[in-house]
Amino acid sequence: MSILGSLARVSPELLEQLRAPDAQPYAVLSDHETQIDLDRYWDVLRFLLDAGGVPINPMRSGRLYPSVERAWGGPDGDSCLLAVEEARQVSEFLDARPFSDLAIHLRAAGEAPLYGNKQWDRPDIRDRVELLYEEMVQLFRDAADAGECTVFWAA
User: Fold this and answer.
1) Residue 123 CA to its chain's centroid (Å)
2) Contact status, residue 133 vs residue 5, Cβ threshold 8 Å
3) Phi, psi at 38, each rounded to 5°
4) Residue 41 in contact with residue 106, Cβ under 8 Å?
């Protein structure tokens, strides 16, 4: 079984609706039109953002969503919500960092205990990580422009 990561940008209104006891936030967000599939590469992206000095890491920061009791993903529930202002801060950071600034940490990622444990600096894998990074940059840019939140999960 794989643990695949996803990231979605969502309006604050929808996030509140999905907090209702009968709502199914995982099902809704998994099929959400603004969701991107980070596949098995979510952990190396998390690592690269930390190594690059991101002030708020969307893969490990924020609050459990929709609540501590109902969070999903990972062994302890890792569905984390970034509020509008936090998503804006991440967008500003990402817009100021081309992938090449973070790619210098790919060799170190190979030594880290990351999920997927790949040869992260291999050209074909590096290209896939870069593509997903660019999708993430655009997702956060769009979230900032629209005044939206983001939710990350790995399940």
Assistant:
1) 22
2) no
3) -90, -5
4) no
- What is the model's pTM? 0.92
CATH for the stretch 5-154: 3.40.1760.10
Q: What is the DSSP string of 53-87?
A: T-SS-TTT-SEESS-TTT--STTT---EEE-HHHH
What are the tens digits of pLDDT across the range 45-72?
A: 999 999 999 999 999 899 988 888 888 7
Q: Where are the domains of the chain?
A: 5-154
List the one residue out of 36, 90, 98 whose CA is nearest residue 60: 90
The conformation of residue 35, written as its DSSP 8-state character, comes to -
The three-state secondary structure class of 117 is coil
Cα 108–Cα 112–Cα 118 angle in degrees, nearest 5:
85
